[in-house]
Design a protein that fits this description.
There is one protein chain. Helix content is about 15%, strand content about 20%. A hairpin with a 5-residue loop joins strand 1 and strand 2.
């Protein structure tokens, strides 16, 4: 393997939203840095079963709903 082309692989501390922390190895940051997660398994809808909110960007969602309104009955 070539020397000097690979990123540093070191220990960082990861902090979850509920206050728990754990150490893992990562190429993120520097040795001993603390990575605070905005979204983690305790808050993400994919793991908590919450409803996903669809964001209408540029009217795409409203055009889709108008086009396919008659296909599915509520």
């Amino acid at each position: 393997m070539k020397k000097g082309i690979h990123p540093s692989y070191h220990f960082v501390e990861v902090a979850l939203n509920d206050g728990t922390t754990y150490k893992t190895r990562s190429t993120w940051g520097a040795e001993g840095d603390k990575l605070t997660l905005d979204i983690d398994p305790s808050t993400h809808p994919a793991w908590t079963g919450g409803q996903q909110q669809l964001i209408d960007r540029g009217g795409r969602l409203s055009r889709f709903n108008k086009r396919f309104a008659g296909y599915v009955k509520a």
